[in-house]
Amino acid sequence: QVLVEESGGGWVQTGGSLRLSCVVSGIKIGDMKWFRQAPGKQHESVANISKHSLTNYADSVKGRFIISKDDAKNTVYLQMHSLRPEDTAVYYCVATDLNDPDGSEYWGQGTQVTVSS
To answer: What pLDDT tens digit does each residue of the chain (117 aa) get?
Structure first.
């Protein structure tokens, strides 16, 4: 059974910081992604990190968010700085299995981030 568990969300004022964590069990993590979904909007890709630690970010978060991972802990992080009200959303971690060539994705339940103005 694959479990993807996010944590670290919460309430913060504009300009504040939060660090999200995503612990994965049941597989060895490969490429990892963070998505978010704001109320009334579709899922938006925020950042991703490849199995080789190559990173990519949405334009809206470049320079403010940093994605990283600890393969030994099977964990990925999203450090968020200079948060804005428009960053308010449920943040989801998406995991892939390093040993699965099909690239099946596993989603967590999400963690709420609320940024007040």
So the answer is: 999 999 999 999 999 999 999 999 999 999 999 999 999 999 999 999 999 999 999 999 999 999 999 999 999 999 999 999 999 999 999 999 999 988 899 999 999 999 998
Determine the 3-state secondary structure of 71 from DSSP: helix
Task: Dig out the tokens for 37 from the structure.
Answer: 């979904």
End-to-end alpha carbon distance in the chain: 40
């099909």: which residue's tokens? 102
Separation CA 112–CA 87 (nearest Å) = 10
- Cα of 89 vs its chain's centroid, Å: 12
